[in-house]
Specification:
- By secondary structure, the protein is α/β, with parallel strands linked by helices.
- The chain has one domain: Rossmann fold (3-Layer(aba) Sandwich), CATH 3.40.50.
- It contains nine helices and seven strands, in the order αααβαβαββαβαααββ.
- β1, α4 and β2 form a beta-alpha-beta unit.
- The protein is globular.
């Protein structure tokens, strides 16, 4: 499991260039993935939405723009990332560890986490905490990296472990943070393993939507 102190230090060091790096390294695919997430969120018509591990606020800002009547809160334990989110226009932020949210039970009807659960010290414990703050019948959306299968597996691994860290190091000045990225993606449960994890954490009706041949996935479930 990831080391919280390392994760905090790594993301603090790349906060200023994080958005640019993400768009370049994914060749803009991350923008399309968030658009798919917004389509799913629209089905739920959220009144209060918490974006956990919001980072620089990409998904929370997309929700804020798409649903101006929704009360959107972005939370993260890394203050430099939150500062960037605020500068970009995110209206409500909370500096907090997603493993221990200082929020009452059943206080949000939708909870999202994009590319953040993978960085948490205990995936199942984090999901249980998400379940706690969701209203009964509320919705969870997890957008994160997977590993493609078939012919794409080896080329993607080559990119992930050998090419991406070099490019990211040039952009952000910290290639080691992106060495960690590849390791975290390989270790993160995916497909049926992640669906089973959602059920163990108390969620029902788990679903998976693979994106770009499985390089990323949108998982949803109901509290």
């Amino acid at each position: 499991m990831p080391d919280p102190a390392y994760v905090h230090a790594a993301f603090s060091s790349i906060a200023a260039r994080y958005v640019t790096a993400n768009h370049l390294l994914s060749m803009g695919a991350d923008i399309l993935w968030r658009a798919r997430a917004i389509e799913k969120i629209a089905e739920w018509q959220p009144q209060r939405l918490l974006d956990a591990a919001t980072g620089t606020g990409d998904l929370a800002l997309a929700v804020q723009r798409a649903f101006p009547e929704t009360d959107v809160v972005g939370t993260d334990f890394c203050r430099p990332m939150l500062d960037v989110a605020v500068q970009r226009g995110l209206e409500q932020v909370l500096e907090a560890d997603a493993m221990h949210l200082p929020l009452p039970e059943a206080s949000f009807d939708v909870l999202t986490v994009a590319f953040g659960l993978r960085n948490m010290a205990d995936y199942e414990a984090a999901l249980r905490e998400f379940h706690r703050v969701l209203t009964p019948g509320g919705h969870l959306l997890v957008l994160d990296f997977s590993m493609p299968s078939g012919l794409m597996t080896m080329p993607y691994r080559m990119y992930l472990h050998h090419i991406l860290p070099k490019i990211a190091g040039f952009i952000t000045g910290n290639s080691s943070a992106y060495d960690y990225l590849g390791e975290s993606i390989e270790a993160f449960p995916r497909d049926e393993a992640f669906l089973d994890l959602l059920v163990r954490a108390g969620f029902t009706m788990p679903t998976q939507l693979p994106l770009l041949s499985g390089i990323a996935s949108i998982y949803t479930a109901q509290a």
